[in-house]
Amino acid sequence: MNIALINELAKLFNKLDIDTESVLKAAGTKWNFIPFVPGLVGGHCIGVILTTLLIKRKKLDLTQK
């Protein structure tokens, strides 16, 4: 989610003519900043999480809209 969020923010910054790298560099001066950079979203756990959510949805008898 964090990479997806920074991807969306990077698009916004681009339209506002703001340099994303400068924003990330400034944010990095905060002690609790976790650096995420725009890029591909995904990873090894995507399939596991999706399967878990689908099983839970079935147990709760939820349908997709």
Written overview of the protein:
- By secondary structure, this protein is mainly alpha-helical.
- The chain is built from 3 helices and no strands.
- The mean pLDDT is 86.
Summarize the model shown:
This protein has helices spanning 2-15, 20-27, 46-59. By secondary structure, the protein is an all-alpha fold.
Beta-strand residue fraction = under 5%
Largest sheet: none
Spatial gap, N to C terminus = 22 Å
Instruction: State the helical fraction.
Output: 55-70%
Task: Furnish the topology, listing elements before pairings.
Elements: H1 2-15, H2 20-27, H3 46-59
Task: Throw out a few tags for this protein.
elongated, 65 residues, mainly alpha, 3 helices
